[in-house]
Amino acid sequence: MLVAVIDPDVYLKSTRTQNRMIRILVQNLSVALGGGTTIKRIAGHRLQIDSDRTDAAERAARVFGIAAVEHVEAIPFTDVDTLADAIAEHTSPVVDGHTFAVRPRRIGTHDWTSQDLAVAVGSRLVARGNRVDLSHPEITVKVRVVDQTAYLTRSVTPAVGGLPLRTQGRALVLFSGGIDSPVAAYEVARRGVEVDYLHFSFGCGQADHAAGIAHGVWERYGAGSQADLIVVEFEHAAREIPHRVQPRDRQMALKSAMYRTAERIAGDDPGIRALVTGEALGQVSTQTLDNLVALDRVVAIPVLRPLLTFDKTAIRQRAEAIGTYDLSARTREMCDISDGARVATSMRLDHLRGVGEGLEDLIADAVASAKRTRLADWMPGTHYGQDH
Are 104 and 52 members of one domain? Predict the structure, then answer.
């Protein structure tokens, strides 16, 4: 039997919010595990999972809102002695030859305490030649007693945690497919936000590569959600901006044009509450504090930056952990149009807005070029849907 442990972030909410989140979490788990699965809420902020899938634990561990997945043995009992006998019998093959500690927890009414059970199980295991070590045990015997059933933990699969997807609205991720943007998409989704992916195509065949990475993130971690990939043609804008903007201003002009394009596309969908980027403070010239503040003010829609305080090493480690790094590392950087000139690192808002006034036609063309594809329907090399 599997028992999914709900993340503390969920059960620390009010009862009403908690119940709503858990209802959505169960829906997401059901999608992740598919047919032949039943999920039941049990005491202690846990979900009992019965599934025909051999990979059920692995799949459940990728559902946001789950802190861990426990493989447990259900042991019915009548009194503390029969329970202690059963636990000792089940755990002895694992404990033999190792130091151990017994860590029981109880829910319900019993005429004995958790400490009574720990002593009873411990004495039986010691009688078999094992040694107790409460400070640094090699084996920890974990058992959770709920009324007249005990759940003995056999193994634990760490899970992604966070808040259930679809509990915090939707956002639009500016998605290059490089190392940063998939991690940003993951991090904001981990906080319950359903995401769509916006890719700016520079005419170099990168769109399909980015689509594959976006599809991978959604397929692995997006159970219960719908996600779209929106591709806009930005090659013309990237080629035209150098003819209209001074060299030191070009990178910020390009970035602000991308923000404004994203804002208009998001504005066509009332469900989208914010933009998400993979920007990190001070990582490149357009990501100084002054420039990020100016970019924020170019658009009215909120901009979320979940990687704001991450350094590059931390971002890479996160990408490796979530399985996006290898593909993302092959993404080519296509956004440098500075031609080697020094890039403005502290652009005033009025100057940035003035530069942007001359780019209105490029933004309009980009918005008009948008193509939308449901990631569930995406296949490598396929056409990117209908006009936005």
Answer: no
**Which 8-state DSSP code applies to residue 302?**
-
Rounded Cα distance between 225 and 81, Å, is 47
How many CB atoms lie under 10 A from the CB of residue 14? 8
Which stretches of the chain score pLDDT less than 50? 385-388
Structure tokens given for 240: 């035209």
Separation CA 246–CA 253 (nearest Å): 10
**Pairing status of strand 131-132 against strand 99-107:** parallel
Q: Are residues 101 and 73 in the same domain?
A: no
Q: What is the dihedral of CA 178, 161, 197, 382, to 10 degrees?
A: 80
Provide the 8-state DSSP code for 39: E
Q: What is the pLDDT of residues 86-140, one digit of tens each?
A: 999 999 999 999 999 999 999 999 999 999 999 999 999 999 999 999 999 999 9
> What domain range includes position 30?
1-77+151-160
Residues 205-217: tens digit of each pLDDT: 788 999 999 999 9
Contacts of 257 (CB under 8 A, 6+ apart): 237, 241, 356, 359, 362, 363, 366
Q: Which residue has the tokens 């899938």?
A: 53
Which tokens in the block code for residue 344? Answer: 């403005």
Percent of residues, the chain, with pLDDT higher than 70: 95
Q: Are 128 and 63 members of one domain?
A: no
Helix axes 114-127, 80-95, angle to 10 degrees: 50
Comparing CA positions, the residue from 107, 110, 115 lying closest to residue 78 is: 110
- What Cα–Cα distance (Å) separates residue 27 from each residue in 64, 108, 189? 12, 28, 16
Tokens linked to 283: 């990582």
pLDDT score of 386? 42
CA distance 345 to 130: 65
pTM, whole model, 2 decimals? 0.91
